Amino acid sequence: MAAQDCSVANSDLALPFAADAPLRSLADFATAGQTLTPETMLHVRDARVIFANYGALLADFAPALLRNLPSPDPSDAACRKALDEWLVGHAACVSVSQAASLAVSTPIPLDGTSRRVWRPPRYGRAAVMVDQASGAIFDVKGIGVPPDEQPWLPNSNGLMTLEEAVHEVLMEHLVFAVMQRAGVDVRPLPSYAVLDLGFDAVWHDGRAPQRATALVRRAATRPRCQWSRAVQGREMAHTLMQIELLLRSYGISASVCGAVRLRLTAADRHRWIFRDDDELTIPEDRKAAVFAAAGWSEHDLIVDGVNVQVTSDLQSRPLRARLMDFGRYSFRERFDTVMYSWFDAEYLSMNGAYLRPNDAFYVQPDRECGLARFENSEPHGALFDAVVRYRSGRAERSDVAAAMRHAVHAAVCLLDSAPQRAAPAPARARSVPESADAGRDAAVPPEGSLARRA
Questions:
Q1: What is the maximum span of the chain, computed from C-alpha positions, in angstroms?
Q2: Residue 454 three-state SS
Q3: 418: left (phi over 0), alpha (psi -120 to 50) or beta
Q4: CA–CA distance from 76 to each of 79, 81, 86, 172, 329 (Å)?
Q5: Ordered mean pLDDT values, 10 residues apiece, the chain (454 residues)
Q6: Radius of gyration over alpha carbons of the chain, in Å?
Q7: Could you tell me the pTM of the whole model?
Q8: Cα–Cα distance between 424 and 337 in angstroms, integer?
Q9: Phi/psi of residue 319, each to 5°?
Q10: Cα–Cα distance between 416 and 126 in angstroms, integer?
């Protein structure tokens, strides 16, 4: 078998990725203001790699990692085997609280060893790990709740199912493809691998158990406003809205998932704004301004907050961004809710930029070159069928990898078959408040990055 054929027949995704320099020191988190909390995690016994983007792993951690490999070429089975052992040895862990719980998973087999990890603020089920020998710093998601918490159903079980991990990796590569086509310097943070942790997540509501996995990805610092109560500012609010509009032009959204969803309603000259079933308490003059900016008339109006998660080297002019956390990303054929990107530390203040569905800058998916209907395509269905078959023992890990490659390739072919379109122009959104001085302490400088400003 030729080397190329061998590569295709294994668990190597061999997909493109953003070739940026990875973090080299945990001190980078302190520079970004993120205090790391050390923690001891327990190594699981029966983990294995389902698939990996070995090229990204080698690009980020060579030459130190290469010193211990029999070959530097991931098309070589010996190289892949050594990298799989490295990934499992360093990333296949769960937290102490997770291992002790019987409420959200089948029993977790442990091998009796442990390792030191670090949690940045608000890392509910993820942590940062370091391989001292190679200097590799990486982020692992799906490895359990912090030691002072207990996992609970349905919203905080501390785990990541294989279906969730596959969705995140698929969206990562589709975002890479659409941003490359759009000709902008916006790229997803690359994932290195998905690990089968050797046990199942359970639900107790009639759903079948699902395989628990760990998503290993490039570590990154984040802007303060996305992990603490810090002012986001006008500049960053408009930049995140621009990125969301770019995604929407291709039928993908980070923000219609309901994560930040509000409802505007009125009756008998009274106005109310609700987040879920809770009424917001804000001044009447600001409430009136929000209703006006959102274009409320007679019926309830849904407002979706921009939920694009980025790394801390975001900049606005020229636009440069690295995106992360794709679990909430989804496909849409059409958008019909008001967009809202907030200026303040608290999005419930309702101070921010608003874009209505009937505004000239409000973007709908391009039917010719978009991915809005990709969710209903054969390659997408085949990928998640492979996930189901893997869980039941009717498919190998290479089948899941092959289905992922096929799905991404099919999406890229769909994009390439359509006429090239210009990226949407930055939106001229309505603002609450209208004063240009509001939120002037922007989290993103017009030029440069957070890291350089710090």
A1: 75
A2: coil
A3: beta
A4: 5, 9, 16, 26, 34
A5: 44 95 94 94 97 95 86 89 95 96 94 96 93 93 94 87 97 96 96 98 87 97 93 95 96 95 92 94 94 93 97 94 97 96 95 95 86 93 97 95 97 86 80 60 38 30
A6: 22
A7: 0.91
A8: 18
A9: -65, 125
A10: 35
